[in-house]
Amino acid sequence: MNTLTLSRVAENQWHAIENDLVVGRGHASRRLDGRTFLSIDTWRDTVFDQLATAMLADQSAPLYTVVDETDHDLTTKWERAGFTRERRESEFVVPTNLTPADPPSGVVIETAPTETELRELDRAIRAEVEATVGWQTMPAEVLPWQGGTRPLDPSKYTVATKDGRYVGLVRVATRTRRPRIGLVAVLAAEQRHGIGRAVLTQALSRLHQAGFEAATTEVDETNTAALALFEQIGAERTGGSLELISGKA
């Protein structure tokens, strides 16, 4: 008779062992935003269920996982373990060979922001997001506010200024095969005037000049304004992902 044994082999790793063979692995990853995401690698449903039970018992709630929107089998397994759907993100490829949109009158697009003013805008945008849709709707790698101690790299940002004050920004990371647009944001009082489109297309044009033909981004599907913006500039939806949660408060 085969006996399955579950072992926690490290603080964040579990193995399912049968006849001295590893037949399943579980991993818990704590992201920089403080949330813990689980993953399980096994081809057997019974092993998946037992690993999930053990991991949930060992970790503090809430816990998260991410699955491809087309992987219905994996989604079902996590739901069987008690996870529910928290959010859905669409993934896009964004062309860079765009003519930058003209900003509204009085708005100037800058590509070398100062850290002090950039931090002030970052703080203001975060406060507005928290007061409305909540920071949990932001991509996982966009960190929550940490009292101003988190370093900002101005070289990743393109900003919009109005009357000498920063009112909008785009952040682009280029240390990947394709540049990644991590954040597009405009202060609430300045929205719906074309600032977001102007600063985004300027950032994309800079990428094109640097030799990049496309960038990538993910957008929460409840963010209709951002979805519309990327669709207007010709972004192509390439897929999506589901974020699931267990132990939601």
From TrEMBL:
Residue span(s) of domain N-acetyltransferase: 116-249
Keywords: Transferase
GO molecular function: acyltransferase activity, transferring groups other than amino-acyl groups
Pfam families hit by this protein: Acetyltransf_1 (PF00583)
InterPro entries registered for this protein in UniProt: Acyl_CoA_acyltransferase (IPR016181), GNAT_dom (IPR000182)
SUPFAM superfamilies linked to this entry: Acyl-CoA N-acyltransferases (Nat)
Protein origin, superkingdom: Bacteria
Keyword Transferase: yes
Name of the protein in question: GNAT family N-acetyltransferase
Species for this entry: Kribbella jiaozuonensis
